[in-house]
Design goal:
Length: 354
Amino acid sequence: MRFSKELSRISKLDRYVRPDKVQGAIKLDSNENFALDRGFIAAVAKDAAKRVDLREYPIDELEELYAKLAEYAGVSEKYVGVGSGSDQIIELLLTTLAVNGARATVFVPTFSYFINRCELHGILVDRVPLDGDFELDAAMFALRAKKADLVYLCSPNNPTGGQIPRKIAAGIIDELDDKLILVDEAYADFAGYSLAKLATKRENVIVLRTLSKAFGLAGARVGYMVTNEKLASVFNSTIQTPYPVSTLSLAIASSVLERSVHVAKTVEAVKSERERVAKRLARIAGIRVFRSDANFLLIEAGRKYRTIADTLEKRGIVVKLLGNVAGHPGCMRVTIGTRRTNSKFVECVEEVVA
């Protein structure tokens, strides 16, 4: 049966595996923003809960969030769409705007979820490798992407951390004006720029953002996109489900955006810590730290990888263990947390390598 054949194909695909939760551990593996105080988020949630009636469908709350997101992104509400995390927006775009047999071009390594979902929906994926420093050869990428229907730019990139230089990113978009281009900016709050305003002026560009990282709302599942007016309108009215995000999550998102000045201060603290940790790690023999514009660092530990990983586990510090990444042995991705947790991680590495 066709159904059985398709189910068999799907069962063999790579899939996202949720990490185990280690009670009492220092959690530096999922790029959540633990530098943002838990009490702050609890107060935001409490305030939001007082403002809503969960017996009602979320109508006013959705409109309110459109306005708050537009103000934060510096665009009009007519350019904004909302989803249950940016993952859900990606899923909807792939299932409605890309047909089975379409071709997507991505650079690798990158956010594996996007590649996995393309494969699930029968979209062919052309993987263009980054260079040895995890930088993008824009000319080669654009040449390959001209054969695609869909282009995915993760910037800042996960798991490498680097943001594509603005001029290069804009150049790629200019050259591929007949392709649907998704720019994943989940970590842009920690970086130097956003292409949100550019996306409003193009017919083919969608910028994906989230409140899971800088705003500390990974558990609320609120993502958004910025694009041109026509695409945003079709997405909100037809592609997206009528009530994609819960009333409480919408209210929490609006509430935290009202406190964006406080969040911005925390973001600056994370950026400062990112540079401090990177410099300290770079002084350790045998450790390589790659450029990052996100709230994490990609580290190549080489032969010390397993020893470091075992020591971290014993100390109750959880990081994302990646192993070999594009020929770089012993890689791990480490979230930048508080100064205390960051120091504990660095001290562990220093102890092992010394």
